[in-house]
């Protein structure tokens, strides 16, 4: 892949804004850079209330401009996260190669392509109204940029792995200062992302949404299907791989697998059917094969670059279990996985690529937190509480508020936590979270009732940065992993203490929390003072089937609809009104009350 290094001429502005956009696959998003720093970013789903919304992110764009206090014509350049015409070429290639089997799905999909997906520039010019410079950044370049440019490393190996971009599914790169250099690539249809999604669908879950369920289920099984799976995939020592496409049908059919696949693995599980040992063992086998291939690619990348640090991007980089084993199996001593490693984060990556590599700008700016979304004043919060007639206490002293919340958590209350600016990406990191005491094993069942989700799925934990080495087996007790993208083994002597967040395999998906995270760090500190445990169970503030809450109205809705005990929203602590709870269906909400 050739990437132009020609520097683009810029108009003279006091401040320079670049708008990044991802759309039309899943997790559409917009991100606005101000002088090379991410100023604001949000997924479209947070406003439309359609989970993983793939529509063009008009509301997210409007939000970014509104937060910055600028008009669209104040934006220097717009960066789109892929090349639509090149992707359409790949769709046509696949149709020709698999005709006549692909005729029906092709005819079903072609209207959407012709109406929207290849009309991106028209949408940007006519519907959005942007008349400035537009750059179409290749999909995997966007992922690589999101992985490397926000990292703390001046030089690093970079790996991108996902379902597919235009053609590319896997990319090996060298990142140095403000430049990404492509080294190796693997193209469609050979894809670790599509491999994992095939089994996600076969196990009765939803593609591009439930892959993390397969990851969680894997801990309950044995990899007894590993040998059968390996007959479908050839993986070489350098990590390059090829699929036996006789077993996969994602190029030509509505299902991801072919009849031969069922000859090997039996009939697929139907959504809603009980999960048996077969499903658990299949999940364990899929995870084992993925981790092996992932590790081989990373080892080869280490040899190619000679780097001690690695950055990983793309949807597969959200596989926290695989990420946690990087330090066990590969000669990298440091790693960075951007919190929004999937397609939403590619909006950030596209904008950063234009800023750094095309415009030639330095320095880079490390991203340590993802609080790039909306925030609300106490006056706005109070108005919403008054409209609902909810009982609350107001605290003008933060220390008193945190002491009260820490006490309630220590008494096993479940707290809805709505504070500061909303997070960007798929993880709740202490701004829009549901929090609980990790010390009681029964707390997992209690929070599962709140979330209305499967019992086999684990919860993540937030832990004070300075105490992480006491609890987790990770390289270096001061290493920061702020985005909950890594699973690490919990030290055996601490597992009983963290019973609600230790998974069946002895690991925990962990977020380290540093003083820069403000109020959330101080809450963890207050809880540690109260209980001697510097950790909280942290899960996203939403219920099954809906996005993370964006507005105070949505937070209150979920509070009233679930058995959450208290809502800590800004400086207010809201108690549950008598006779309220469980009478609201969040899935029925489609438009943000704030819009």
| CATH evolutionary superfamily of the largest domain | Carbamoyltransferase, C-terminal domain
Total count of strands: 21
**Percentage of residues in helical conformation:** 25-40%
What is the CATH class name of the largest domain?
Answer: Alpha Beta
Quick rundown:
The chain is α/β, with parallel strands linked by helices and 595 residues long.
List descriptors:
disordered N terminus, alpha/beta, globular, DHBP synthase, 18% strand, single chain, 3 domains, five-stranded mixed beta sheet, Nucleotidyltransferase, domain 5, nine-stranded mixed beta sheet, 595 residues
Could you characterize what this model shows?
The protein has 595 residues and is of the alpha/beta class. It folds into 3 domains: 17-139 and 340-358, Nucleotidyltransferase, domain 5 (2-Layer Sandwich), CATH 3.30.420.40; 192-337, ATPase, nucleotide binding domain (Nucleotidyltransferase, domain 5, 2-Layer Sandwich), CATH 3.30.420; 378-586, DHBP synthase, CATH 3.90.870. It has 20 helices and 21 strands. The strands form 4 sheets. The chain has a 9-stranded mixed sheet with strand order 13-21-20-14-15-19-16-18-17, with helices on both faces. Strands 3-2-1-4-5 form a 5-stranded mixed sheet. The protein has a 5-stranded mixed sheet with strand order 8-7-6-11-12, sandwiched between helices. A hairpin with a 5-residue loop joins β9 (233-235) and β10. The longest helix is centred in the middle third of the chain and has 29 residues, at 277-305. It is globular, with a radius of gyration of 23 Å. The two termini are 42 Å apart. 51% of the residues are buried. Mean pLDDT is 91; it is low at 1-12 and 581-595.
């Amino acid at each position: 892949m050739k990437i132009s290094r020609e520097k683009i001429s810029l108009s003279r502005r006091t401040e320079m804004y670049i708008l990044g956009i991802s759309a039309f696959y899943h997790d559409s998003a917009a991100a606005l850079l101000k002088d090379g720093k991410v100023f604001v970013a949000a997924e479209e789903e947070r406003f439309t209330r359609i989970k993983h919304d793939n529509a063009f992110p008009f509301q997210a764009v409007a939000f970014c401009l509104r937060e910055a206090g600028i008009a669209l014509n104040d934006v220097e350049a717009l960066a789109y996260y892929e090349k639509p015409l090149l992707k359409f070429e790949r769709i046509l290639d696949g149709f020709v190669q698999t005709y006549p089997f692909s005729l029906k799905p092709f005819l079903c999909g072609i209207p959407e392509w012709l109406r929207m997906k290849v009309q991106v520039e028209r949408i940007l010019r006519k519907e959005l109204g942007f008349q400035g410079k537009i750059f179409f950044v290749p999909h995997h370049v966007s992922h690589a940029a999101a992985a490397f440019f926000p990292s703390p490393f001046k030089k690093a190996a970079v790996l991108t792995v996902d379902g597919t971009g235009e053609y590319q599914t896997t990319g090996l790169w060298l990142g140095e200062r403000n430049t990404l250099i492509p080294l190796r690539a693997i193209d469609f249809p050979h894809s670790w992302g599509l491999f994992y999604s095939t089994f996600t669908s076969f196990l009765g879950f939803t593609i591009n949404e439930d892959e993390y369920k397969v990851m969680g289920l894997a801990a309950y099984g044995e990899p007894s299907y590993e040998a059968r799976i390996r007959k479908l995939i050839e993986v070489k020592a350098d990590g390059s791989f090829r699929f036996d496409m006789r077993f996969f049908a994602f190029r030509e059919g509505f299902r991801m697998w072919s009849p031969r696949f069922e000859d090997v693995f039996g009939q697929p599980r139907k959504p809603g059917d009980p999960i048996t040992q077969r499903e658990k063992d299949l999940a364990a086998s899929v995870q084992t094969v993925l981790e092996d291939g992932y590790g081989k690619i990373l080892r080869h990348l280490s040899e190619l670059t000679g780097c001690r640090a690695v950055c990983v991007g793309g949807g597969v980089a959200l596989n926290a279990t695989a990420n946690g084993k990087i330090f066990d199996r590969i000669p990298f001593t440091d790693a960075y996985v951007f919190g929004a490693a999937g397609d939403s984060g590619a909006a950030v990556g596209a904008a950063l690529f234009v800023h750094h590599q095309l415009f030639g700008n330095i320095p880079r700016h490390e991203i340590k937190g993802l609080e790039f979304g909306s925030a609300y004043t106490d006056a706005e919060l109070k108005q919403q509480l008054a409209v609902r007639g909810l009982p609350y206490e107001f605290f003008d002293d933060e220390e008193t508020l945190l002491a009260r919340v820490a006490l309630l958590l220590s008494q096993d209350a479940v707290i809805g936590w709505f504070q500061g600016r909303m997070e960007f990406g798929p993880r709740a990191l202490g701004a829009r979270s549901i929090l609980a005491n990790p010390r009681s094993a029964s707390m997992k069942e209690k929070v599962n009732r709140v979330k209305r989700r499967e019992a086999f799925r684990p919860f993540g934990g937030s832990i004070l940065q300075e105490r992480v080495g006491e609890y987790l087996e990770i390289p270096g007790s001061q290493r920061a992993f702020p985005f909950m993208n890594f699973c690490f083994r919990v030290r055996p002597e601490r597992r009983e203490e963290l019973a609600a967040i230790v998974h069946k395999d002895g690991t925990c998906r962990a977020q380290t929390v540093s003083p820069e995270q403000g109020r959330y760090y101080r809450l963890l500190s207050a809880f540690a003072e109260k209980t001697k445990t510097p950790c909280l169970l942290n899960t996203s503030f939403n219920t099954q089937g809906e996005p993370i809450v964006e507005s105070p109205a949505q937070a209150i809705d979920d509070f009233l609809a679930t058995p959450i005990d208290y809502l800590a929203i800004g400086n207010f602590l809201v108690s549950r009104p008598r006779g309220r709870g469980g009478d609201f269906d969040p899935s029925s909400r489609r438009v943000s009350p704030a819009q």
